[in-house]
Design a protein that fits this description.
single chain; alpha/beta; Rossmann fold; seven-stranded parallel beta sheet
Length: about 280
């Protein structure tokens, strides 16, 4: 029996490829987007297998209604993909309050609202797989992306807790951490803070930095393998570059913690025991 998917941010980029891949193998998909007209060709090709739903994930009530509609339409939900999100470019000094609130509303709270909305259905059926589309930027950090990193590190934090909370209900959680892909994440889909001239040199230096771009279609096929796995990973990189970079970053973190471990012990002082039952 094919799976039933609920995918946010499905009108373009990775989200659209996820929807197309699922439909092409015979699955059914509730595909949400702010503008569902971009899904017209998929509707024409796959008919009732796709349910387009107009949705702004920052609207919690609308999220609850969309999830309910999808469940009533298909009868169940097997794979929930929180893909809606965008990139915010700007140094920490440049980010405005409106910039960061919009970033967190979509990338963090949007995924939280969807996760909360689907959990009653998944718990009742005793199964389901929540896929949180994070980023290599959910474990690594680069200049001029602090707001974006804040959103993805937050997503990863609550998702790891979620995985432990729902494992007993038969629900799986996977955090997908894509590297660079040939989408418009850094173009029309992105938000750019008002630049401060003090950081012009930094931007010029970063402009020459090139990343190898992966194929969104290949990422979609990889996601099919993840959701079909009996024991899917909690975290998985999509692309080779993030794993290579993470090895160096985590080795440096471990070394720093080790180098300063004596002071860490001093900071504890004389530890007291709490909660010990005699």
């Amino acid at each position: 029996m094919g799976k039933v998917w609920f995918v946010t941010g499905s009108s373009r980029g990775l989200g659209r490829e996820f929807v197309s891949a699922a439909l092409s193998r015979g699955d059914q998909v509730a595909a949400t987007a702010r503008d569902t007209s971009a899904l017209a060709d998929l509707v024409a090709e796959h008919g009732t297998a796709i349910l387009p739903l107009t949705l702004d994930v920052t609207d919690r009530a609308a999220v609850v209604a969309a999830v309910r509609q999808a469940h009533e339409h298909f009868g169940r939900l097997d794979v929930v993909v929180n893909n809606a999100g965008f990139g915010l470019f700007g140094t920490i000094e440049e980010i405005s309050e409106a910039d960061i609130r919009a970033q967190l509303e979509t990338n963090v709270l949007g995924a939280l609202w969807v996760s909360q909305a689907v959990l009653p259905y998944l718990r009742e059926q005793g199964s389901g797989h929540i896929v949180q589309v994070s980023s290599a930027g959910g474990v690594l950090a680069f200049p001029a992306l602090g707001g974006y990193h804040a959103s993805k590190w937050a997503l990863e934090g609550f998702s790891e807790s979620l995985s432990q909370e729902v494992a007993g209900f038969g629900i799986k959680v996977t955090i997908v951490e894509p590297g660079s892909y040939g989408t418009d994440w850094g173009g029309p889909s992105a938000s750019f803070s008002a630049p401060h001239p003090a950081y012009d040199g930094l931007r010029q230096a970063m402009a020459g930095f090139q990343l190898r771009q992966g194929s969104p279609r290949a990422a979609a096929q990889a996601l099919l393998t993840v959701v079909d796995a009996e024991n899917p990973p909690l975290r998985i990189f999509f692309g080779t570059q993030p794993y290579q970079a993470a090895q160096g970053v985590y080795a440096d973190r471990l070394k720093t913690w080790a180098d300063w471990s004596a002071l860490s012990a001093e900071a504890e002082g004389e530890p007291a025991l709490h909660g010990v039952v005699a």
